[in-house]
């Protein structure tokens, strides 16, 4: 691969990563502004951003879950949440001195592996290129949260007809834009694997059947 092509490919990875990272952090700021009481008396975008970066552990200021439209409130609402662990409460109860370095290390290793895998992609593997870039952006977004706050801000609440939050077991773990990018990226990796398998299966000629052998006369 030429140097110019290689630079273009790395530029694509950086661009998608930055877009996902910025979108993730901006929506988390909006979640704090609209779904908590932290910024209700703070005027101006600059002071609001400063308070958002400075203040931590806002669950005591969280507002009640907010419905979207009547048509979708049976399965979707907005709710501010702080996740010190991973999905499905993994490592949620670990001591902070162990949990935070662990997730830092895991995320940095994952980013390194993604970069190494991305470097080996060949021309025509556009689906994987998108997939790895989305996963990289999502990992970077949540890493920033863990470095700055020690936990991840979530705000998208999917549930089964429980917008009043009366049955916690009816709710999918609350998530954010970074989680969405990672999930879409993993889905694209799975799709690429299926398409590759199907293409190879169609290209493989069928094995001819062995001629039948009967009893000798």
Protein described:
By secondary structure, the chain is mainly alpha-helical. The protein is 54% helix and 8% strand. It has one domain (3-195). The protein has helices at residues 3-35, 45-54, 96-119, 126-148, 177-203; strands spanning 66-67, 76-83, 152-158. Strands 1-2-3 form a three-stranded antiparallel beta sheet. The longest helix has 33 residues, at 3-35. It is globular, with a radius of gyration of 23 Å.
Q: Strand arrangement, largest sheet?
A: 1-2-3
**How many individual domains?**
1
Principal-axes geometry comes out as: globular
Mean pLDDT across every amino acid position: 85
| DSSP E strands, number | 3
Strand-pairing-aware structural class:
mainly alpha
Radius of gyration: 23 Å
> How large is the count of helical segments?
5
Low confidence ranges = none
Counting copies of identical and different chains, the oligomeric state is single chain
Percent range for helical residues? 40-55%
Distance between the termini: 64 Å
Q: Sketch the topology as an H/E string, one letter per element.
A: HHEEHHEH
Strand content: 5-15%
* Main sheet summary: 3 strands, antiparallel
What keyword list fits this structure?
3-stranded antiparallel sheet; 217 residues; 5 helices; globular; mainly alpha; 3 strands
Write a compact overview of the structure shown:
This protein is mainly alpha-helical and 217 residues long.
